[in-house]
Amino acid sequence: MVYDDNEQQQHCKNDGSCSSSYVVGHHAMNSILYANKKADEYRRHLGLTQDTRATVDNVLDPRTINILNKMRNRGVFTDVSGTISTGKEANVYYATTTTTDDTYSDELTNGGGLALKVYKTSILVFKDRSKYVEGEYRFRKGYCKSNPRKMVTMWAEKEMRNLKRLNMYNIPSPNVIECRNNVLVMEYLGSDATHSYPRLKDISNSMVMDIYIQVITIMRVMFNKCHLVHGDLSEFNLLLSPQGVVYVIDVSQSVEHDHYQALDFLKRDIVNITRFFRKTMINEHHHDHHDDQHQHQLHLLHVNTLFD
């Protein structure tokens, strides 16, 4: 298959009837293939093998390409023009949309960009993720460990439902546009493909205490109102907008607050966040010698205080 920009393919049958379909653009495919190559090199470094259903790219098997083509044909997005991130579970790509009606007006609060999260269909990636699904009433029918596509579809659905619950209680997070099998379409957090909101790990901000208060508030609201525990909260999946608002991402592993390991996951989240902010505040103190020392005392809540 040749991936030319805006290529329209004609499919004709013996009876003379024809139909048209668009394929993913050349630049979009190059971007996706490059990202997948990097992820595949990382997996080989760990000594992992690929699922036989997946292509050498580990993401773009024929079914996934078909899903992307159908989404484009329906106008969900018009082009994929960049790679946002690559990971062992999924790759995220920047997509544009030319939707002029009100279809996504409520979801696209940060502009017209979209984030396409494509989950990998390798069973090796998700084989150790059952602990985040088993024990949840929402997924009481079970986690089909023998079928990698069903596993990844459930994982994508889980992230979609968790994001919708965060949105319901006004926790800053990407709005969900659509979820189809292993492809999740979300609001993009940033101005364009090269200017996404930075992760907390990448910032140097004098408003550290304000950011810290936002984060612990998010954890409390997630637990008390959303009835969710993030399960993997750290400086790597918290973003900061230009207005100083903290956004939560990557909630596929988030569990209900009554999950049998929920409190263990919550305590781990608190330890991770406390460790990061303690280190950040120490660095801020060392780099700012002119302010009063009292202003830089580590006024972090103790882990037990947050946990109790």
Automatic annotation (TrEMBL):
CDD domains: RIO1_euk
Residue ranges annotated for the Protein kinase domain, each copy included: 78-308
Enzyme class: transferase
Record localization: Cytoplasm
Domain of life assignment: Eukaryota
EC numbers, comma separated: 2.7.11.1
Keywords for the protein's UniProt record, in alphabetical order: ATP-binding, Cytoplasm, Hydrolase, Kinase, Magnesium, Metal-binding, Nucleotide-binding, Ribosome biogenesis, Serine/threonine-protein kinase, Transferase
GO CC terms: cytoplasm
Cofactor section: Mg(2+)
GO BP terms in the entry: ribosome biogenesis
Keyword Zinc found: no
Catalytic activity annotation: L-threonyl-[protein] + ATP = O-phospho-L-threonyl-[protein] + ADP + H(+); L-seryl-[protein] + ATP = O-phospho-L-seryl-[protein] + ADP + H(+)
InterPro entries found in the cross-reference section: Kinase-like_dom_sf, Prot_kinase_dom, RIO-type_Ser/Thr_kinase, RIO_dom, RIO_kinase, RIO_kinase_CS
GO MF: ATP binding; hydrolase activity; metal ion binding; protein serine/threonine kinase activity
Entry's family note: Belongs to the protein kinase superfamily. RIO-type Ser/Thr kinase family.
Record's protein name: Serine/threonine-protein kinase RIO1
Naturally occurring in which organism (per UniProt): Perkinsus marinus (strain ATCC 50983 / TXsc)
